Amino acid sequence: QVQLVESGGGLVPAGGSLRLSCAASGRTFRSDTMAWFRQAPGREREFVAGISWSGGSTYYANSVKGRFTISRDGAKNTVNLQMNSLKPEDTAVYYCAAISSSLPDRVGEWAKAPTRYDLWGQGTQVTVSS
């Protein structure tokens, strides 16, 4: 079964840090563009960060730039999101997503569209208290 499974969410005070992980299984994901999205109650799902298949290119939403770092480990089939200086407005369910088609080794504005992704995890809750 091809799937993405997120972990690492939890409750953290403002200014704290969390590290989310996404474990991919069922096939190789080495050619996939991967990303993290989030969705807060009553709001649309929004792009957080994306990473190209080699890991050499990353792209961030302006709201998290300088605070979050996306990375991947091809050998372990994992994608991580290190979140520092967390704010209450970062509270949301965080989702891992993958694009299975081969794309150039570069991510940019185009990666923000959720409709480009054909595989999603079940999400992990991140709550930042003020």
Keywords:
4-stranded antiparallel beta sheet; single chain; 11 strands; 7-stranded mixed beta sheet; 130 residues; mainly beta
Alpha carbon gyration radius: 14 Å
Tally of contiguous helical segments: 0
How far apart are the termini? 39 Å
Oligomer: single chain
Q: Pairing-aware structural class of the strands and helices?
A: mainly beta
Q: β content, as a range?
A: over 45%
**Poorly predicted residue ranges:** none
Helix content: under 10%
In round numbers, the mean pLDDT is 96
Helix and strand pattern: EEEEEEEEEEE
Shape: globular
Strands, count: 11
Summarize the biggest pleated sheet.
7 strands, mixed
What would your notes on this structure say?
By secondary structure, this protein is mainly β. Helices cover 0% and strands 47% of the residues. The strands form two sheets. Strands 2, 4, 5, 6, 9, 10 and 11 form a seven-stranded mixed beta sheet that branches. A four-stranded antiparallel beta sheet has the order 1-3-8-7, with no helix packed on it. Strand 4 and strand 5 form a beta hairpin.
Summarize the topology:
Blueprint: E1 3-7, E2 10-13, E3 18-25, E4 33-39, E5 46-51, E6 58-60, E7 68-73, E8 78-83, E9 92-99, E10 119-120, E11 124-129
Parallel strand pairs: 2-11
Antiparallel strand pairs: 1-3, 3-8, 4-5, 4-9, 5-6, 7-8, 9-10, 9-11
